[in-house]
Specification:
six-stranded mixed beta sheet; binds 2'-monophosphoadenosine-5'-diphosphate; 2 domains; NADP binding; alpha/beta; Rossmann fold; six-stranded parallel beta sheet
Length: 272
């Protein structure tokens, strides 16, 4: 029976076991997907042991997404670009590391905003952390002409421009509300608006109707950022789909069936 799991610490809050368990059930597949709480100091040893225990792969989450790159034998280009991996496959005695966050981000927008064309205009991204890196790489790959980056700590967005090149332009955080001219995509990749965190306060008045706006925060599902964007005529897509779609490639590789992202899967991921 194929085994897979999610490796993190802490990992008890992860919705991945429920989601993959749901997909195994509805597809009538043999297999198990378990949470694995692994300390940093044990990571290498655990990864090496998993294949011998019947594991075909694993997801990797905080705090191991970067460190796993030093352990894996083969790293995909997109994982190397993002500097982190979230999906492992164990094959032929090797550990393959991939990053499906960008895929999840793109797939969520493509499904949630049919007709969306990333190449149609500049994209605005708020935030410059790990999540922003995945969004930047996937948007650049999709042919976005310009990425306008605004982050509270300017040095972090400057570093991303250094790394990803001149299609990335940097704005001061206090100018974040003045980035919307001609923009066709706007992304909140900060943790602002998340339950228990500060509110998202960047003024959105400059948003043009029809702009595709998404929030990586999905607790709450409908954030103040998305509600305001909708008031201004934007097409909004919530962030839960990114979580669901990033899980699809791993499940398909490990268990051999492409799982469906539908309302039931969404409810499972939300713990309902
Ligand atoms: P992740 O991997 O989810 O991106 P992260 O690397 O901790 O997590 O990044 C969190 C993002 O939210 C960062 O862009 C952070 O801004 P800083 O780089 O200045 O820390 C942003 N963020 C968090 N709290 C914020 C706040 N109160 N105001 C503005 N930005 C905030």
């Amino acid at each position: 029976i194929p085994l897979a799991g999610v490796i993190g610490s802490p990992v008890a809050h992860s919705r991945s076991p429920a989601l993959h368990g749901h997909w195994l059930r509805v597809n009538g597949l043999r297999g198990h997907y378990v949470p694995l709480d692994v300390a940093q100091s044990d990571l290498r040893e655990v990864i090496r042991s998993l294949p011998r225990m019947g594991f075909v792969g694993a997801n990797v989450t905080i705090p191991h997404k970067e460190a796993i790159l030093d352990i894996a034998d083969v790293i995909t280009d997109r994982a190397a670009l993002i500097g982190a991996a979230n999906t492992l496959s164990f094959r032929d005695g090797k550990v393959y590391a991939d990053n499906t966050d960008g895929f999840g981000f793109m797939e969520n927008l493509r499904r949630g905003a049919p007709g969306w064309q990333p190449s149609s205009g500049p994209a605005v991204i708020f935030g410059a952390g790990g999540a922003a890196r995945a969004v930047i790489t996937s948007l650049l790959d999709a042919g976005v002409p310009e990425i306008r980056l605004a982050n509270r700590t300017r040095a972090r967005s400057d570093a991303l421009r250094q790394e990803f090149g001149t299609r990335v332009t940097v704005y001061d955080w206090v100018q974040a509300g003045n980035t919307f001219d001609e923009a066709t995509t706007v992304v909140n990749a900060t943790s602002l608006g998340m339950v228990g965190k500060s509110e998202f306060r960047v003024p959105l008045d400059g948003l043009a109707p029809g702009t595709v706006v998404t929030d990586l925060v999905y607790t709450p599902l409908d954030t103040a950022f998305l509600i305001r964007a909708r008031e201004l005529g934007a097409t909004t897509v919530d962030g839960l789909g990114m979580l669901l779609y990033q899980a699809v490639p791993g499940f398909e590789r490990w268990f051999g069936t492409k799982p469906v992202v539908d309302d039931t899967a969404r409810a499972v991921a939300l713990g309902k």
